[in-house]
# Entry
Amino acid sequence: MDNLRILAGFYYLALATSYKNKDDIIQWADNCIDKYDIPYEFIELSLSGSKSIEDILSILKSLYGQS
# Structure
């Protein structure tokens, strides 16, 4: 889970700086759901296509802030 926290932090920064877009984040979340035992926030992230970037950033922030 620590690696996923670190990656969530990376994707947070990548989205905030427009290095990645919403579709990239959703695809990453989908891949994590397929491969790992993940927290619920990944499912929420995967379904966030119609949400604002601020909402997605909030989900990512909650993921990388978890211990």
Notes: The CA atoms of residues 3 and 64 lie 10 Å apart.
